[in-house]
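Supplementary Methods, section 5.1.

A reviewer requested that the exact input to the structure prediction be made available. We therefore reproduce it here, unchanged from the version used in the analyses.
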Amino acid sequence: MENILEINNLRKSYKDVLILDDVNFSLKPKEIVGLVGTNGAGKTTLMKTILGFIFKDSGEIKFLNDQSYSNKHELMSKIGFLVDTRLYENLTAEENIQIQILYRNLKNEKETWDRANYLLELVGLKGVKKKVSDYSFGMKQRLSLTLALLGDVKLLILDEPFVGLDPNGINGVKKFIKEIVEKEEIALLISSHQMKEIDELCDRFLFLENKKIRNHNLNKEKMFIIEISNKTPNLEINDKNIVLKDNKILVSDKNQLNKTFKILADKNIEIKDILIESDSINKLFDEVQNEKNS
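The structure derived from this sequence is encoded token-by-token as follows.
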């Protein structure tokens, strides 16, 4: 499957301070990837560099296999972003949307407005006619998110999209994001300090530490733990995805569950309990920090 975004040997500095050094990763269609790091690690700088808001020192950024960004208007119509999004304070939400349609060269205006109206309703701004200058911070954040999700995008880059949203708004936005990423084969790069939300949303994580991406192939894999009655059963299991440990059988591939159940049934071994565990983003973040400090 062809990559939506590919970053190779990216380097960025401000004056004499190196911010990003030899950053490498890629995003595929239908993939939701969390960008994680401590404050000041360079997450927003990385996002702005990908979007072309700031210039890279060196390296390669390829979007839809195009490194040159030869047709910037066409490319911008396929990239949605919430990264320091500028809102026009003296205009209404609908007027801001109209400007975004023109700026990003979104051609199918009726379809775009259908989505815009759906999004405005989702984030609680449908029918709000007052100027953005009269909005609360949360309302401005919700409008910025609406602008990011307009059009036929192939790449979404979201920096702190849940700020200012109540629990219902967060759940609605997560549901919508999951649906459009799957349905429209979008690649999403998202950064947030709300670990619980990105833990539930993301397929995998990129850790930005010491100016580099680390553990970029680390996925949130589920582990099925089957607790059995026998502490040391006489079982022969020739499968790397099935591990026997005391009175527990650890299954790392859900496709091997039926095989495991059959083995236990054939040996007349009782199943006492089944648990499902997966690494949380907090656990993964702690592991990276411990490795950094060791």
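The longest strand covers residues 17-27. These observations are discussed further in the main text.
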